[in-house]
Amino acid sequence: MSRDVLNPLTHINISNGKKTVLELKSLSKTYKTGDRALTDISFSVPAGQVVGLIGPSGAGKSSLIRCINRLVEPSSGSIYLGETELTKLSGRALRQARRRIGMIFQEYALVERLTVMENVLSGRLGYVSGWRSFLRRYPQTDIDQAFGLLERVGLGDHYNKRADELSGGQRQRVGIARALEQNPELLLADEPTASLDPKTSRQIMRLIQGVCREMNLPAIINIHDVVLAQNFADRIIGLRAGQVVFDGPPSALSHKALTCIYGAEDWDQVQQSSESQNDEFLFSNAKVLELT
Amino acid sequence: MTEDTIWAFVADAPRQASDIGGRMLPPRWGYLNQLWQPLWDTLNIATLGTLIGVIIAIPVAFLAAGNTTPSRHFVRPMALLIIVTSRSINSLIWALLLVAIIGPGLLAGIVAIGLRSIGFVAKLLYEAIEEIDENQVEAVRATGASRVQVIDYAIIPQILPAFWGISVFRWDINIRESTILGLVGAGGLGLQLQSSLSTLAWNQVTVIFLVIVATVVVSEWVSAKVRRAVL
After folding, report:
1. pLDDT value at residue A259
2. pLDDT exceeding 90 applies to what percent of chain A?
3. Is A60 helix (H, G, I), strand (E, B) or coil?
4. ipTM greater than 0.90, yes or no?
5. Which of A39, A129, B133, B168 gives B226 a disulfide partner, CB atoms 3.0 to 4.6 angstroms apart?
6. Cβ separation A130–B157 shorter than 8 A
7. Arithmetic mean of pLDDT, A148-174
8. Average pLDDT, chain A
9. CA-nearest residue of chain B to A106?
10. Are strands A219-222 and A50-54 parallel, antiparallel or unpaired?
11. Closest-CA residue in chain B for A103?
12. What pTM was computed for the model?
């Protein structure tokens, strides 16, 4: 099988000359166990672009986005957020750079025993001093912003509830509010819909897409659901065995491209059902798309 | 059942038991008035001892837990050594040593209970720390939070119920242990027990036993209540 990047449009074209927010230059990651997770990844993301990162399980999607905010240490290559070279930072400088990157997680990763408000305010931890955060005495502007964001994600009345009292979709909304509370320049999302039902998944994706549009915020979203990725992303990057094998607009995701990313499968059936798709997502799709 | 068993004494046992039983009854209720102060001492030994133990156990637990220790090869083994040392020596033995070192009285009892509690609390607490959900830690780290803030926001909320449960459980155990520390001179009810035993005042021993039982019942009730409230 060809390992050439299927790149129908160069990303200069995709980015439309907008300012580059994130740039990855030949990023590689090899784990201590010898597993090679990422090989020579290079791409850049302009402001406001929503990137869907697809690929089979184990292709390195999670490693890739965790390398960006250095929750996972890259082995080589460099990552630039604006002018800052993230790969060179450590200690305080790294924490200050992390404030600029909001992250949304698969299992929400809210602190279950804290309130919704405390969870959202934890997005400001990188900005406030230790004693202030310990006493939960955040600046009024942070609190006002948190209320505003909760309103935006549709949870205005729930601020005083404990996170573990919420449903999955509601928790993910809190996760989104927490990430946005950071006033990030970039949003990373690691399988944000993997624990949600199909309808809620679409609502969450629509919400992420919506806030990215409003704030001109670029996002990289790991997602194993090709149809969701096609519907909500501006650009698709396909990973296979730690390498970029596709980079282009969702419309260019042909059968050939999908086969290149995932291996052979009856893609007609997948695309057919995606055409008949509406908010009441069909469960049968999920089965077809389980390509692991 | 050994060669040294003196069978004449064994054969004699029922008569001895009924003799002592007879002398234990009726309890000498008037003796209660002399027990309030030692009972108060016992409660103080248990509570202050638990407090000291818990305060020292918290940092030890964080140093011992594999996911929070600053160094797996040096600090962690040291912390584990503290835990094992504390746990392997019975409170009564600690008290015996401490009475010799700092003299008889409440302080020796408090320190003995404290030293014994460090290991118990630290061991259960570090196990709770190792079992936390790392996703929550990762999420808080991703916001740019410092180490201390990560502990404050991601770890402490997760271990708080376990912490209260362990502490109250240890307090409950310490109430029981502190009732006998007086036997070696470390203050509290045990002191009265020893003097009653040595003067063969069995009807006073009965009163002490009843006070101990009542105290333990109350402390168990309190500890069960608190644990249910925090879980």
Report:
1. 82
2. 22
3. coil
4. no
5. B168
6. no
7. 88
8. 82
9. B135
10. parallel
11. B142
12. 0.79
- Does any domain span residue A155? yes
Which residue, chain included where needed, has tokens 């990030």? A184
Residue type, B172: D
* Alpha-carbon span A87 to A75, nearest angstrom: 10
Chain B interface mutation, best of A70, A122, A128, A174, highest count of B Cβ atoms under 10 Å = A122
In chain B, count H helices and then E strands.
10, 0
Q: Which helix (H) or strand (E) holds B11?
A: helix B7-24
Give domain status of residue A145, yes or no: yes
Residue with tokens 């509601």: A170
pLDDT of residue B94: 86
CB contact at 8 A, A134 and A145: no
The tokens of B188 are what?
A: 């509290």
pLDDT of residue A187: 92
**Residue B144 is nearest to which of A95, A134, A175, comparing CB atoms?**
A95
Question: What pLDDT does residue A8 have?
Answer: 45
Give the mean pLDDT per block of 10 residues along chain B (231 residues): 77 82 79 83 91 95 89 90 90 86 86 92 94 92 90 92 90 88 80 84 86 88 83 68
**Residue A192 falls inside a structural domain:** no
pLDDT recorded at residue A253: 82
Count of positions (residues) in chain A:
292
3-state secondary structure of B28: coil
**CATH code assigned to B30-175+182-230:** 1.10.3720.10
B157 close contact with A: CB closer than 8 A? yes
How many distinct structural domains can be found in chain A? 1
Nearest chain A alpha carbon to B140: A122
Q: Distance between CA A56 and CA A261 in Å, rounded?
A: 7
pLDDT at A55 over 90: no
Residues 6 or more apart whose Cβ sits within 8 Å of residue A246: A5, A6, A7, A236, A237, A238, A253, A257, A260, A261
Q: Which domain holds residue A140?
A: 111-183
